[in-house]
Design goal:
The structure is a homopentamer. Chain A is 39% helix and 14% strand. Chain A is built from 12 helices and 8 strands. The first copy, chain A, has helices spanning 20-30, 44-47, 66-74, 84-90, 125-133, 152-168, 190-203, 223-233, 249-261, 272-275, 279-295, 299-306, and strands spanning 37-41, 79-83, 99-102, 138-147, 172-179, 207-210, 238-242, 267-270.
Chain lengths: 317, 317, 317, 317, 317
């Protein structure tokens, strides 16, 4: 079991002394006292517009944004990541959820062929700090960088400043880093994914969300072996993999297990795979995922949780 | 009748505690105590220059901008939306109107073929807050985002910051969101309109103004059924439809009724359909619209109001 | 005679209470107590470089910039409009002139074929306020917007902010609005000029300087009739016409008379027509212009002033 | 002899009252009590990289940047103009020199065919004021504008703000204005040079450095006659000419004499012609130049100074 | 032995009096009391992504970022240069290392053919000062300028401001200056390298890192002779050469010796040559390098250190 104590939290030196306790508190909350991150990604209403929430193969429950918060409340998650405004509209009714405010977002309307991607910071950190001050349970920030985009510079600078300020104020930061743009031929090239992980470390992120690497051609490594190099490159920044589009639960959980135990990943970041299901099924999946991420269950054991044969609660970590 | 009480107002958590009462007050004013929005759009003097105010089929009264304020005073509206300067020049003589300051605007001279649309924020929020401080009855802000424009990022960021600051200061925010730009092939595609609604929620808007969706091809839904999905996607952000160019009153009111009662819309946003008429007719139309939006009249009943057979006043809500 | 009293000045609500007296004072100064504006445009040394000041048909006196200030001193003008630096270098010797600080300017070197026009704000308002604080007789600001330029957004935003801040500090604002850019086929199209006037109102300007509209094709209106629609569109923003290149005095004065009495203009904005003449002739022309603008003289009467047969002084308003 | 007294210094009204004495002091220092400017230009290490300092025809002494400061110390100059950092590294050892901090600079690597020139402001004024506060003998600022560049707007705005702030703080400003860019066919066209001079005045500069005009075709004027019109256009802004590449001393001094006595120039701005010589020769040339600029020597007399037959010191002004 | 005392440190005049002691302290630390700089470059995880840290010919130890800090701790280095975030994550465990915070960085994904290089400032200086205030041993800043890039202006301005602020606060600044971009045909042209050195001086840097010049064609000078001119052009800014890709130790040390003793270099800046080796070998190489840079060892003597036949410690300087 990956349990840690408060004094095992490795606090970066840019966390100002007066915010040290708050950082540790947030770290313990976000990782549910394990050092591992179970991130429930709820930022796709901007990123993918309504296509991730309504349509064939998606439970109708997902059409109402409140679905996300019900999952966050009834399921077992480390943090629920969403845009500031989304959180602002629901958090009063869901005060127990650990929120990670996604600081930037873009739609998918302009594609890379038309223009390299840039995802703008949508609000100042001050606005987020004010919400925290007013009692909202915000434990950290998220920010996406499209590495290799012609706008890489702007995103790197926004992220670099945000991390400095977030740490100074005791908040965690998770970077989403995706190589993308005219210059990027293979977005999942293992060297590139490892490079992205290293960039996150250099910017000082606490966690980095990357796509799983995809070895090709001469590269005989499994994806999980390749992931291990990226995890090493991330150093003290915990690496988690994006969940991608919805697959069956066993496949999903098996991948996650290998990402952690072979690839050195430090958790998961999952969105569609969870919220496109009915509330009940989605809740059970968060529990199965958390059983692997936060309590080192094996896949079969986690499947029992998913199938509702066993429950998994925070108290069991 | 869609009446609400002050404690039924759902206050977002980014409204700072000291501004909570002001937000509720503004929400009750803007919705005339109903939770529904009757928005009188008076921002076209920039958006469409003088073509909406003078020419064939437009009452000559509309050539003088004071016409807008007379309608706002004599009619029944929730908020009059206009640029800061326009309001500044007339509000002293029309202190009773609820003003919504439109924070950005662009002309229609440069079309999308030449350059993707960008509508710049025209003044700092501080200037608007100072006017409110000086006694002007400002209840909220408006901002337009052209989703899918190459300048989407700038508008998303301006809107994102404005909403945070507006809420912190107790003001409402209405977003106008129109998908437009090289990347947007069908501006009224139902999925896209629903996406726009979700973006408004993620940014934390109180209301979003969209164009009515237009199902095409295989999509057998009525526009109002399609609108319902968008209303769901908007979650706690109230959705209202743009009124578009002038049509006959019955058609207009019938559409509005269906938008609300089938499409789940939370009111209306109407400009040209109102102000291009003579003062008397325009005033009667605001009353007929409000009868539907704010008092759940049916269309025949509202037509009686439009035809002057019955009056409709705020006292009747 | 268009005389007004201090309490007839319509003060916009964005003039902060503590600046109300100053605004009224500046309005009375700039309009010489009439509500009409006689603006002496001296900003062409940037806009047109030295071609307006030296060469064939231009009196040699105009080669020395002090000429402008001598005209301002000896003639009858409402405000002398020039860049901040120009005013800073001469105002100590010409303290009685009412100055309008032109906040932006560009040269004519890069033409519209090469790039759409952008005229940048050249200094912060703080610098202008400091000069006023130090005793310089500054009554207002000027700013040029090229409507329809690809840089329209930047100029609209700079103007929008300047007006808010200027009013808050008791200063008047005159906008110069010229439709220009790749998207603008007919810069003097009457609808477009009326649109420009409406934009000035929406931004909250006190006066707007436009080119006289030029009806073409099917449009059988005189320029002055067309101007009347623009004046209406401007609402409470006073409209004045640019003077254009130098013509004979009678033609000039006749046009001005019709602009005011048929077209609803609220004064004049004249540069080259004045300063390209010898000091004596230029002084007499300012008096003839002011006789029409500020004292409702007819053209023949004003010509007597221009010809030196009669004097016209401020005391005669 | 062009001597002036402190109360003959014409102080612009944007010099704040509390900085008036400092401005006068700086003006007297920079002009050595004459109202004329002898500017030693030492900013080419960025503008021309090392080609102006090392190579054929250049004394090896010039390879070491300290050479510039030795000339400044041993010679007779009004101000030594260089970038902030250059001054910061040497001023402790050369405290007696009057420094003019060049606020912007660019290299010559990207030529106009590739991109129109933009020379960025390299540091905030605050940094310069702090150095002055710490005791460095800074009397003014310099800034280069490429008029007609597509980046003209940015440079105009940076210069406009700098002048306002510099004057407010008692510093002089010298503008370098060079018409350059795709739109500029003849950089030394007399009308254009005169236009540049007028722009400097409108921005409020104390001095402007331009290239000597070059009349062509039908224009039968001598360069110095053409320069006279530019000097007039500059009004109360003193005009000085750039020295250009190295020529023999007599030619150089003869040109300077005519620039002042025919062309109305108010001094000189000389770089390469001075520092590419050995220390001894460079020192003598500064003295010969100053003899003309600051003491109205004729050319023959100045040549005696250059040849070492006579000395010229500040005490002789 | 190049030892200096505290009062031999030449403090630039932009170091504010209250920061003078701190600057001297930092200068003595960074140069280990010698005036020479041994810089261990650890910023490549962004610049070169993971390719410099994992792959053929690279010791596997280099895959874990902690390797860099172990070398910094066990070896002999002047400063360890890395991004703010990297330092923030490890400095608590490596408090004795002198840190130089690299303020900007870019990846190598977008190449110069696609777009001229721009490396953005990734965080405000305030964040770095706060870390120092909290006890992190930060002695200076680094910043990269791509001279000749179309983005040269932005980098020059960021660097110019950083140096002013860093000095004011007692920090050293090292500039990395690489001519690169469409306009640059030969990145290692001796004149260009000398020009780069001069630019660093004009911006006020304490040290400049350049690539070694490469004389070609008619230029019969050795690289070290050519370097001498660059060192002269740098004036009081100390020049160090980039180490480049990994070569055998003798070659490397021989080059370094000549850079210092023939080329006038003021130290070294070495990254890959050090960290791509095993910890033990890397540590020995830092000692051999430092023996040359900080203690004027000859190459044979330094090779003994590299080979482990002799130790070299700070105490031996």
């Amino acid at each position: 079991m990956p349990k840690i104590t408060r004094d095992q939290v490795r606090v970066p030196v840019d966390v100002m002394p007066e915010s040290r306790d708050e950082y540790i508190e947030n770290y313990m909350k976000a990782t549910q006292g394990t050092g591992r991150l179970m991130l429930f990604a709820c930022d796709q209403k901007v990123e993918h517009l309504n296509k991730d929430f309504y349509g064939k193969g998606i439970d109708i429950a997902d059409a109402d944004p409140q679905h996300l918060f019900e999952i966050g409340k009834q399921g077992v998650v480390g943090v629920l990541a969403g845009q500031r405004g989304l959180i602002a509209q629901y958090a009063a009714d869901y005060p127990e959820i650990n929120y990670l405010v996604k600081m930037n977002s873009k739609t998918n309307l302009v594609d890379t062929d038309q223009e390299d991607p840039y995802s703008p910071q949508l609000y100042d950190l001050e606005a987020v700090l004010a919400m925290r001050e007013a009692g909202v349970n915000i434990v950290g920030l998220g920010y996406t960088i499209y590495l290799g985009s012609e706008y890489e510079a702007t995103m790197m600078a926004e992220a670099g400043n945000l991390i400095a300020q977030a740490h100074a104020n005791g908040l965690l930061v998770v970077l989403w880093i995706y190589p993308r743009g005219t210059a990027v031929k293979k977005e999942k090239d293992p060297d590139l994914i490892a490079g992205a992980a290293g960039v996150a470390l250099c910017l000082g992120a606490d966690f980095v969300k990357v796509n799983p690497p995809k070895p090709e051609g001469d590269d005989a490594r499994t994806p999980f072996e390749a992931l291990k190099i990226a995890s090493m490159a991330a150093g003290r920044t915990g690496l988690v993999c994006a969940g991608g589009s919805t697959v069956d639960a066993h496949t999903f959980l098996d991948q996650l297990y290998n990402q952690i135990h072979v690839g050195g990943a430090c958790g998961n970041a999952t969105g569609r795979n969870i919220h496109q299901r009915s509330l009940d099924e989605a809740v059970r999946l968060t529990k199965a995922i958390s059983a692997i991420t936060l309590a080192d269950y094996d896949v079969d054991h986690a499947m029992k949780v998913f199938n509702g044969e066993e429950d998994f609660t925070l108290a069991m970590i």
